[in-house]
Amino acid sequence: MNTKKKNNKAWFLVLPVVLVVAFTAIIPLMTVANYSVQDILSPDNRIFVGLEFFRQIATDPAIVAAFQRNLVFSTQILAIEIPLGIMIAKLMPRRGWKAAAALVIVAIPLIIPWNVVGTTWRVFARPDVGLLGVTMNQFRPFDIGNTPADAWFTMVLMDVWHWTPLVALLVYAGLRAIPDAYYQAASIDGASAVSVFRFVELPKLRRVLMIALLLRFMDSFMIYAEPYILTGGGPGTATEVMSILLAVIAVIQFDLGKAAAFSLIYFLIIQIFSFIFFTILTLDERPGATKRAEKKALAAQASAGKADAAPKTGVTNE
Q1: Distance from the Cα of residue 254 to its chain's centroid
Q2: What are the DSSP calls for 115-175, one per residue?
Q3: Measured between alpha carbons, how far is 202 from 146 in angstroms, rounded to an integer?
Q4: What is the largest CA-CA distance in the chain?
Q5: Is 178 helix (H, G, I), strand (E, B) or coil?
Q6: Which residues contact 242 (CB under 8 A, 6 or more apart)?
């Protein structure tokens, strides 16, 4: 019989973490959830409306359009930033003072505050004095204040400039972690640069790229300060992403119940997309994945054997 007395004092060490999480996450989230089911007319006058605000959010054309703009924006910047970040990391020096200098230069955009980035690009894209605006005007009329395509192009370009260095630094760290023995073996085999990247570096960068994809997707879906300062969501609603529309509903229209319901749906969308991304990218690492891969390989070998045997016997699977 075990007569040793358990010491539960260790639970007190967890208490600070519980308090921090409660004040920073749980209580604010529950407050928003409480607002989402009430129509607040004044501090002392509120009406319970149930899920009415959620129904309005799901059928609001402006919110659906903002959601679609967010999807397009995230897809575009991921399609540009991931390959561009890999290319920059491949070009960066591996050793010596040049490697340190390259790291500092590449990291510069990351240490600039978001509102400063938006202000800088706002001036940079001005058609009268901005370098980008004046240069583009040499070829075609360029005005982010009146042309939706120009505003969208500038917003994407700004995000690529600001956040591609993050992808490059993550990939660079992943490349530095690959042992030299892999490159030496590939050199002995006479592998080309493309083969080294395809069969040596890319498999080793899988987890790094997964982190980069998740971080950039979540951040691009929550982007607010830079596009708000750059275009304010305009012209019209051309660059009005979900975060900007949420701020308009909560601050300008002061519709707290609808804004709270919108916030919860916004939060769930990001969580669901991130979960789907993570599930797909780690599918091969889950228990049972190796066995499935082995079964597929055996099935492929069996099919190849039948195909080889068919001409000899004159029998086809058809």
Answers
A1: 29
A2: HHHHHHHHHHT-TTT-HHHHHHHTTS---TTT-HHHHHHHHHHHHHHHHHHHHHHHHHHHH
A3: 43
A4: 88
A5: coil
A6: 63, 66, 67, 69, 70, 221, 266
For the chain, the 3-state helix, strand and coil shares in percent, each to the nearest 5, are 75, 5, 25
Distances (CA, A) of 309 to 202, 219, 304: 36, 54, 9
**Residue 45: what are its φ and ψ, rounded to 5°?**
-135, 105
DSSP string, 82-98: HHHHHHHHHHS--SSHH
97-149: pLDDT as tens digits? 888 999 999 999 999 998 899 999 999 999 888 899 999 999 989 999 889 99
pLDDT in tens, 221-270: 889 989 999 998 889 889 999 999 999 998 888 888 889 999 999 989 88
Domains of the chain (ranges; CATH) run 26-59+253-283 (no CATH), 76-241 (1.10.3720.10)
Cα gap 69→221, rounded to integer Å: 10
CA–CA distance, 102 with 109 (Å, rounded to integer): 13
Structure tokens at 233: 């969501």
Q: Which of 72, 63, 24 is nearest to 220 (CA)?
A: 72
* Those residues with Cβ within 8 angstroms of residue 105's Cβ, 6 or more apart along the chain or in another chain: none
Residue 103, exposed/middle/buried by CB under 10 A (0-12, 13-18, 19+)? middle
Q: Which residues of 238-259 are buried (b: 16+ CB within 10 A; e: fewer)?
A: bbbbbbbbbebbbeeeebbbbb
Whether the per-residue pLDDT at 153 is higher than 90: the answer is yes
- Number of other residues whose CB lies within 10 A of the CB of residue 107: 13
pLDDT of residue 173: 93
| pTM across the whole model | 0.80
**pLDDT, tens digit, for every residue of 158-200?**
999 999 999 999 999 999 999 988 988 888 888 888 889 888 8
Spatial separation of the C-alpha atoms in residues 272 and 263, rounded to whole Å: 14
